[in-house]
Write a structure and sequence with these properties.
mainly alpha; 119 residues; elongated; 5 helices
Length: 119
Amino acid sequence: MDGERRKKRLSELLERMKLGEDIAQRDLKNVLTEDAYRELQEMWSHQRAIRALRKPPKIEKYEQLLKVALLAESKAEHYSMSRKRKEHVAHELRNGAENACERAAEYLEYHRSRVFQFT
């Protein structure tokens, strides 16, 4: 593949990547040099290793608390917008969502402050 054609094809592939489209390995292999392709494979292996790492348990716990809060808020929104307009139920759910958000924020603040203690 000559220089101009390679450059044009690389630009096309880059645009597709920016749009979030998948790029076939054969397309990459055809347009990259052997060294560039090998380097890409090494970087991808490194990315897979990073992505395989688990989040710390405290982060997972915070995410779970936040998920509960967001679900409660979503339910409250649903009840307030429903045709029957069950405002009393929506109000109770919204209070529950607010409490859940506070629990998540308190959990995060408690553990964040403990991380930065140097005693």
